[in-house]
Amino acid sequence: MAADGLAAPGQRGRGKPIRRAAPPAGQWDKLTRGTFVDDAFVLLEGTRPDYGAAKQLVVAAAGGTAAAAASGGAATGSLKWSALVSADTLADEVKEMKDVLAAACAKLSDFKGGGFEEARCGYSSLAMLFGVIAAYDQSDVRWRKDAATARDLFARVGFNCKVGTDQSYAEAKARLDDLTGMLDGNSPEPNPNIEPAELWSQMTGRPPLMTRLEMAQDAMRPAIASKADFDKLADELLHAAEIVAVIGEVIQQPDFEFHDDDTYKGYAAAMRDAALQVREACLKGDYEAARAAAGKLEQSCDACHGDYRS
Prior knowledge:
The structure is a single chain. The chain is built from twelve helices and no strands. It is an all-alpha fold. The chain has two domains: about 120 residues; about 100 residues, Up-down Bundle (Four Helix Bundle (Hemerythrin (Met), subunit A)). Helix 5 packs antiparallel against helix 6.
């Protein structure tokens, strides 16, 4: 395994220490010793396969032009979030998460029975959304002045909802009240005891974002089943594609899990770029382009799951 913890060629995901069996005791006779060689590579012919290059075929399939358009060809620091997601989609997503959280937090027994996992996904997604809103490059985005406060509050409850307890339920209910108040035009009360979630890894985690990603993919599939479905569900497809694009960008940020793994970042970039191609096709009303781009998106996700999902 490489020193940085990445997988060796041919391994899946992050490498693990290889436990080898101890050699057999005793001495080999001369006939047996002659069967083996000290270095097997001296008997091999041809060039060794480049596993890293093979994995990049999936990345290349999605294309890289969309990412350059989103960032203006510059580094992530100059990213224009409006090139990935509209202000309307951000507002609609916040409203949809409110419905998810209301169901997850309806009763303590349901919360402890699994609702806490839905709450974790919802609050972690909200923390990401308000992180984007706080950095959004257009002035028409809703909740900008309260975005940092909401980001910090939802980030903390998202991490605390890893378990279903009386305490996490009480906090989830309190944050649901904050969210409901924000939708009604009120501002959430800052908590001085909460450290600002200024890094993306402090706002959210990879598992809840993967859950939200799967929800988005489930929403996309019916919309590309046929031209008639596309015409009917184009708005839902556009919304889902923009959320996927945001997730694909966030999980590449410098402090996020696997941020130093070039293969993982390649998959994330391919997914983001394919989502942006779906977005462009929706805006143009081009069903065939949307279907093709959605196929690339699925391919990038499947390839990544093959390497990184345990």
